[in-house]
Amino acid sequence: MKVAIIGAGLSGLACAIELERHGIRPDIFEETKMLGDKPGALVASLRLFTDSIRSPMSYMKSAYGISLTPLHPIKQMVMHAPLKSVSTKGNHGYVFKKGIEADSVEHQLAAHMNVPIKFNTHINLRDIRNEYEHIVVATGINTIAKELGLWMTNFQAQCRLATIFGEFGNNAMHMWLNKSFARNGYAYILTKNPSEAELVLVVSDIDQTRLDYFWNEFLIREKPGFHIGKCNDIEHIIGYPLTNRYENCYFVGNCGGMIDDFLGFGSFRAMESGIMAARAIALKQDFNKLLKPYKKEVLRLHEYRKMVDLLNNKDLDIDMSILGLPVLKHMIYNNPLYKARYGIWAPKGMQLLKKWKYPFDVNRRD
């Protein structure tokens, strides 16, 4: 059986691992020169956004036989609205490293397989479509799905990723929701070590020429006390294909709709989608059916995104004040059974309150 994987990111590598376990050696094509040779060094797996109450490492090991080691746990979460902040300590998740280093997730995955990767190889689908029985599209971008008329965009933004230096403490994550500098996007800081971190600003519905303006707004309003190092600007597009299997093509990872548009996380969903593609190929199973639980979770977070989009900065401050109440803080952040999707009541409740307060003013502007 001839199988091609286009892309050696997280989903492509996970797919290759599972295929090899079923006795199938795929051809892996990667257009960059080495593993992890793309912007974005740190990713988070947050307990609020995972279905399993186990750690992601324990889950991946028991479910798929894949061992992964995080950079460090997230022991403190600080959520910022324009005028209100909520800080809580606990077991909030884990930070993983992506990139070219030996301890990156890409290299940890590659250690599980013996299949070579063909680097510096750009593939056009039309050139290999008849050569391979199955083609797994794991490119991380939507180009192939768009060419086939399958792609639907949910969220489009400009993103700046910056390496920053300062005093960040240990194992803390900061997140911002503020319409003034992110519009319907967000910002967050993940620490690499006590003196180095990664700052990500995602600004929705702008073109690249306006990113500097919103970046400066963030720096002016938040007055962060750190030194800014190298910056990378990328276009951030999140969406989904109308079907994850089209003829002999299987769409996984970001180009398979596995990244949520609430905070842009989904690395473990991306890996699982690659594994499900491998099982669909090896065991002749229905790929779209295998992906249903993961797509359902992404859809729940998309509904949350739509509700938050309707809030203005004043609403975000009120929501943050509510989430800062001791009982709610304990329920949400320290309860291992609580998931982010259950928190959708907060923005929904805000919208109901606004409708109740202004029941006849349909033209009211927030």
Lay out the secondary structure.
Elements: E1 3-6, H1 10-21, E2 27-29, E3 42-46, H2 56-64, E4 72-80, E5 85-97, H3 105-110, E6 117-118, H4 125-128, E7 134-137, H5 143-147, E8 151-165, E9 172-176, H6 179-182, E10 186-193, E11 196-204, H7 211-222, E12 227-241, E13 245-246, E14 249-251, H8 267-283, H9 287-309, H10 313-323, H11 326-333, H12 345-357
Parallel strand pairs: 1-2, 1-7, 2-6, 4-9, 7-14
Antiparallel strand pairs: 3-5, 4-5, 8-11, 8-12, 9-10, 10-11, 13-14
Helix pairs in contact: 1-8, 8-9
Q: Order of strands across the widest beta sheet?
A: 3-5-4-9-10-11-8-12
Q: Secondary-structure element order, as H and E?
A: EHEEHEEHEHEHEEHEEHEEEHHHHH
- Specify the overall morphology: globular
Query: What portion of the residues fall into strands of 2 or more residues?
Result: 25-35%
